[in-house]
């Protein structure tokens, strides 16, 4: 008899876990199923004061939770390259070749031809008009001032709505640039500061994308709304906003698919996602284009396409800690006229810093 009961219990457990494999893995919150897509919900945090795990998603550059990485320590190659050129210029006396050398240095550092030309034209004009002396120090001082002017007003602030409904930040960008990771980092930061955060896993292109976001949600105690593979991304955003509104969570971070930007249907999908995100009770206040700094000038092409399609409000520039040459920061700001809001400097939860122009310029010049 006892054996029969045990067998029945085991059978029930097997049936339950077989039908809802993904729920079985969940550590927090409950899941619900809605048709036509499987939309699963976990609870947004009531209070989030617990320290976050310090380990990164596979990173060796993680910092203590909450500690802001120092940009100049993370810039690595960018600082060595661009900063190295600047030191080289500083050491030499100014002659005809100085401008050529500076021009070459800026282009090699990924500043791009158009922006480099503009910067150099200003330096040449300054010397011609007697505005600046023809010394290396004066040239660099002017270059520094030009860069400061270029970034004037950028302070990394992400705007929030009126507070009546959830604020929505939509993240877009081609695949592999760091959208999901950046969302995870921001979720952790916001949750730590007490905001109720709900993640919308609107990258339904592949199932692994939702899993990855779910890991970040667990790490930051954020809520998450997921759709099944192939589900309409907009419906996931819609559900996430409803979910956040019902639970008085103030912030929805929407992840999107990053398939090739040359596919027009991705842009259409994103336009629709944007329209849905704008619908009350949601208040869409940021459309953030995530760009991989190591892709250099390619990023600018992508940025233009996304900007035309979905009206980007700011840039999250990732992987500046890697092999990026750094000048792309200048090119992106100058060519796109979009503020750089955040900079990714590693894979760890705290490796995303608000872009501080003064800090960036100082890291290159000092
Ligand atoms: N070194 C470094 N790696 C980063 C940074 N941001 C993201 N990554 C890594 O880049 C890889 C891709 O990041 P994802 O967040 O999956 O990129 P995604 O844009 O969501 O990619 P798709 O979902 O395929 O479109 C991961 O291995 C991240 O850990 C960063 O600032 N620095
Ligand atoms: Mg992703």
Please describe what this structure looks like.
With 366 residues, the chain is α/β, with parallel strands linked by helices. Helix content is 48%, strand content 12%. It contains 14 helices and nine strands. Strands 1-4-3-5-2-6-7-8-9 form a nine-stranded mixed beta sheet, sandwiched between helices. Helix 9 (207-220) links the parallel strand 3 (197-201) and strand 4. Helix 7 (136-150) packs antiparallel against helix 14, helix 8 (179-192) packs parallel to helix 9 and helix 10 (233-246) packs parallel to helix 11. It is elongated. Mean pLDDT is 80; it is low at 6-39 and 41-64. Magnesium ion binds next to helix 8. Guanosine-5'-triphosphate binds at residues 57, 173, 175-181, 203, 209, 258, 290, 318-319, 321-322, 344-347, 351.
Q: Top keywords for this entry?
A:
binds magnesium ion, 366 residues, alpha/beta, 9 strands, elongated, nine-stranded mixed beta sheet, binds guanosine-5'-triphosphate, 14 helices
Brief summary:
With 366 residues, the chain is of the alpha/beta class. It contains 14 helices and 9 strands.
């Amino acid at each position: 008899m006892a054996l029969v009961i045990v067998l029945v219990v085991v059978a029930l457990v097997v049936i339950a876990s077989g039908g809802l494999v993904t729920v079985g893995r969940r550590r927090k919150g409950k899941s619900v199923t809605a048709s036509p897509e499987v939309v699963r919900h976990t609870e947004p945090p009531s209070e989030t004061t617990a320290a976050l795990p310090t380990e990164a998603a596979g990173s060796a550059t993680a910092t203590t939770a909450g500690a802001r990485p120092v940009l100049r320590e993370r810039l690595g190659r960018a600082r060595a390259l661009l900063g190295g050129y600047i030191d080289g210029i500083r050491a030499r006396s100014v002659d005809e070749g100085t401008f050529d050398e500076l021009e070459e240095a800026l282009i090699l550092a990924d500043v791009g031809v158009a922006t480099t030309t503009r910067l150099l034209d200003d330096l040449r004009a300054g010397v011609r008009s007697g505005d600046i002396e023809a010394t290396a120090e004066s040239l660099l001082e002017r270059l520094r001032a030009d860069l400061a002017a270029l970034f004037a007003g950028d302070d990394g602030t992400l705007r929030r709505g009126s507070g009546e409904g959830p604020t929505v930040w939509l993240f877009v960008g081609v695949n592999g640039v760091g959208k999901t990771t950046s969302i995870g980092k921001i979720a952790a930061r916001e949750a730590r500061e007490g905001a109720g955060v709900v993640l919308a896993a609107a990258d339904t292109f592949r199932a692994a994308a939702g899993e990855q976001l779910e890991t970040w949600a667990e790490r930051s105690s954020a809520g998450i709304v997921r759709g099944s593979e192939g589900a309409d991304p907009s419906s996931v955003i819609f559900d996430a906003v409803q979910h956040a509104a019902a639970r008085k969570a103030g912030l929805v971070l929407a992840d999107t698919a990053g398939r090739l930007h040359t596919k027009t249907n991705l842009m259409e999908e994103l336009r629709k996602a944007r329209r849905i995100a704008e619908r009350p009770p949601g208040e869409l206040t940021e459309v953030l284009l995530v760009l991989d700094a190591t892709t250099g000038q390619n990023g600018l092409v992508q940025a233009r396409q996304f900007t035309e399609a979905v009206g980007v409000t700011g840039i999250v520039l990732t992987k500046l800690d890697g092999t990026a040459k750094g000048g792309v920061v200048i090119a992106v700001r100058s060519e796109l006229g979009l503020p750089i809001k955040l900079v990714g400097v590693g894979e760890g939860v705290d490796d995303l810093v608000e872009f501080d122009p003064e800090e960036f310029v100082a890291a290159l010049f000092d």
